[in-house]
Records
---
Amino acid sequence: MAHRRRHFLAYLHRPSKQPVAQDIIPYPDLFNTLVSTPSGTRPAQERKTDLPTAGQCAVHLELLEVFHSLRTRIICSKELDRAFGLHSSRLRNLRHRRESQGTEKWHRFVSLAVERFQGWIRAAETLLEQDGTDETHILPPVDILMVWHAFLLNPLDYKTFCTGHQFHRTLEVPFPWGAIHESINPTTWSYTLPSQNKRWLESEANIPTDLFLSLTETTQTRPSQQSLNTASTPTENEALMHNVLRQTIFIDHMHTHMWIQSPDVEEIISDARESYNNFVELLRLHPGVILVPTLAIDLVWHTHLCSAARYTAFMMERVGRFINHDDKLGKGTLDDGFERTKALFEKEFESPEEP
């Protein structure tokens, strides 16, 4: 019906309303779709050929705030200046010095997170090969989770990597949205691993659970100077690092909109899921055409991509082919694709009488 159709740009720049003090935002009911059924079978909303649920999209918004908070903490940390041996007294401009050091710290931190990701994914594959393993047991520390998340947003590269290294179980595992939600403090946007995950990481995987503390506390073993040098990173790790760095723009956009704290978050996500469903239909109708989504559609698309096997199954059924997500496209290509996508949306989904 016409009144249910939404314009392609409806929520691209939608401001968030200020929440009323006594309200709980987002409402807890928004996360109901994260809960499994008592029988142990997956609920209907988690079938491989369904859209990401509203709850999963909401947790994704929470997770992006966690990543934003982490980057801010790293960039502003004076302890990491000392840990990384950064001395910028030669730089005369104070602002330039701070920006330069902040960028350097973040790049070094991400580089170390990538190295840790390589160790974690091998340990995760080994754990998943054990019968009866709960998939949430592989939930990693926040720095490794950030690398995994960014890698999943490049699905063809991720599939090639997992297949090449024989990480078949990890390739199939759905993203642990429920466990991630339980690990996030929505007041401070901090992330705390469950105790069982800490025990597995430290005792079996031999991975410290807090990279920041490992770097700043003198009582813990610090990474070698060679491992802090991003220039010595292998090609594979370099690509993973750039995956994380490219996501900075999207994370900053979401932080600016702060949809997760809007009283309208349920409506925003509902409309975004409907628009993503239409976007998928455009992918089916226009093979070979570069389509570029709005931020709201991209949120749902990214949420979908985080569960690699389900995403592939969905696209094969709905579109008839695998759809890659390429976040390396240049600005000109993106601008042209966005205008083209807007026109196709209006043609396919807007009724003639609508403005």
Note: Confidence is low (pLDDT under 50) at residues 1-22, 36-45, 219-232, 351-355.
---
Amino acid sequence: MQPIIDFASLLGAARAQPAPQRLLFAFCNRRLHDDHSAAEAARFAAGEGGILQPVLCVDKSVLELDSFAALAEQADSMDNSWQVVFVAAIDDSGSQDADGPIKRMVQTIQTGGDVGRYLAFNRQGQLLQFL
């Protein structure tokens, strides 16, 4: 299997799976938490820190996806405030509902949980790493 280095390789990997795949997306923006300090506000203004807040969630069959640009355009038509999108995949054989996994993904993001199990892309479609 080829490594996932961008959105196109993610689609290729998902399409190569023996079972049909559904991709789950949580589009998030970055903001300051309500009880932030002056130092945190300064870091945020400099482009560092803050928290990620999901603003839009959607699930799509890999057959519904052509490119990151098309996905971003669709997301922008609903909420253009997003800065990063997290992606997960589930089996799309019809036996699993996407609502539960999307809710778990959103909860993980909102609580500052381990987002390392998801792929993340910025608005330009570049793969991100969270350390």
Note: Helices lie at 7-15, 38-45, 68-78, 99-110.
---
Amino acid sequence: MNLFDLTGKTAVIIGGNSTLGGTMAVGLGGHGADVAVVGRNAEKSEEVAQRVREAGGNAKVFSADATSADDLKQLLADVLAWTGRVDVLMNCPGKNSATPFFDIQMEEYDSIMEVNLKSVVLACQIFGKHMVDKGEGGSIINISSVSSEIPLSRVFTYSASKAAVNNVTRFLAREFAPARVRVNAIVPGFFPAEQNRKILSPDRIDSIMRHTPMNRFGEAEELQGAAVYLASDKASSFVTGSLVYVDGGYCAMTI
């Protein structure tokens, strides 16, 4: 028995054209899943879809605003028209800002909360209800951050939004368990990506390295194992409400 075989499963990756989301999409596709790559930049999404195909998987690009209920409802309908099923939902849209706390305007605060938190809630409502009503189980994987539990300086709103994602993950794990729909979160440490490069000054990088026992950044491919594990009903059938840390030991440190 192959614990990590996702053949016949359909995985919807919202934010699938991002650096980390795209790499995890490739991991799922490489293990047999049909992958719906969801993003608003069609060119970036198609690049990810092509990488999935090169890994041996099947992929299709879909466009949706992750903060729009109407877009997500249409996305669900379009994916069902494509493969007839949804087995895995991965929520990985992300927005960050280094605005000092006293300078944060509510427009910026609301924008980050919309992308990082509201999108997760909406997707879990729309896709989660489909999974629950279908009665065939499923896996929802939310992408959190190490700053969700140990708030990181300079990124107040981002940290608060990811803390809420952890809470939502555990709440829904309990709510969806009777329908065999598992809800977990991956908690990445520091993986240089487009959204966080602007806050990675040399001093900050030095501080991160001193706080990371493995003394390096993560590589995007190092998230694939956790993604495939949580997507697989065989490998993680009794795993729900878990926060899976992929952080080089960052959260194991205190001082």
Note: The first strand starts at residue 10 and ends at 14.
